Amino acid sequence: MDKNSSTVKASRSFYLHEDDPHYKHAVIIPYYHDGITNDVKVYLRRHTDSSAEVGFIPIHATIKHRQPSIIFTIVNALLTQTRYYIPWESAEHIHENDEAPLFYNPATTYLISKVLKDDKVVMKIVGDTWYVWYPLEKLIPLEDVNYILAHFDIEFSEHTLDSDFKLTASTDTVAVDTLSQINSHSEYLKTRITQTSPRPIDYAIVLDDDQNTMKHIYEALYAGQIMVTGEEKFAFYRGYKNEHPPQEVLQSLKLIIFPGSVQSVYDSSLEWMPPLSEFIQRVYKDHPHIKLIGGCYGHQLIAHSLGGRVGRMSARDGYNLPILGREHILPNESFFEQGWVQTYLLKNNLTRDLMPKLILQQAHGDHVEELPRDAILIADSNSCNVEIYTIPNRVLCFQSHPEFNANLQQELSECETYQFGDMWDVHGDFQKHKYLKIQDTKLGKESRNMMLGLIREFITYKVEQDN
């Protein structure tokens, strides 16, 4: 495909030894909205060294092997395809350098936060493609910007939308399918950009890991992989600072996610842990319309809060603690009895016998020893007796990390062990053996994207479908 074409690339093999991601492409349109005149200007780009007769187009990106969710693809494209200009139009994030994760630059963390938390970022999902309108804080000074970007053979153009938020530019300057892409979402774009009151929150993520290496990471991992329409609104709370969704949010909330953490739920020194457990108990009892999802630490936290028991693992034959890397998860009969599992299999033309092996990344030293009341065990593994449990149509918890791909898992693990001084042994040699299982392919192809599809099905599955 010519680099100046506005056509999205066809599907291919995206990840080595991993099933293909559900969301593969992004089409990104920077825009500026004048709150006084209500004018909206969009900015398109083209490569000036291309011989193809194609007009200006949005920013296009396809997910890459290293990127664990489409959010990282969007952020990377905004940075690289504008030569860092657009995200830097407001350089407030420079002051946050000392809080940036070890393995991402501050511009990346700033953009992740803005894409997920700024309600003026408008997203729409169509098939495997995310359409993203990225809001600018001010008009782009085109002449000055294009003078600089000319060194990179890039040129930007500015186009004003009409009163119906449609683009009517000449096809001599704008690619034909770009007009279609922008105008097909004009009504939704107008509603979102001109909204005067905050949208209700659909999903909440309660973060329980205060490490700098995880700053904005869990947010991007989950939001970028469980959205279905792009219209879902997220809110994020720091459980480790006693932040929880307030009562007014709980009334309309559909889902709360509790992701991973380096903490242990039985650590009595964590003062924020009892209030968090009490919050989970209250939500479970008083707000039956809210589904709860827990991953790794969150899986343990929900079990602990609802009357189960969590403890430190004992090493089994062939396993060292912590459990790290790919693991074959073994669904049982109850797994296939769940309505959302059956619906997922039906939608994907799968049967129990045809479903691929469930192989996911793990990173834990604690485990659930006893299930909470009403919970059903639906999967175990050779390393852990409780891999996945559910309280039907209400709670789904998994010990694994389907939100991680192998590259992110490796990077996170190495950063953590570097911090704790465990990366080298007493002889000063790098302990590569600790990380080999992360990339180990002996078990077969990693199927995290199938698991993420099952999670999305659980979230949207209606109890009435069982009747």
Automatic annotation (TrEMBL):
Domain of life per record: Eukaryota
Protein name (Swiss-Prot/TrEMBL): Glutamine amidotransferase domain-containing protein
InterPro entries named in the record: ChyE-like (IPR044992), Class_I_gatase-like (IPR029062), GATASE (IPR017926)
GO CC terms: cytosol
Pfam families in UniProt: GATase
Stored SUPFAM superfamilies: Class I glutamine amidotransferase-like (SSF52317)
Domain Glutamine amidotransferase residues, every copy: 241-409
Upper taxonomic lineage: Eukaryota, Sar, Alveolata, Ciliophora, Intramacronucleata
Native species: Stylonychia lemnae
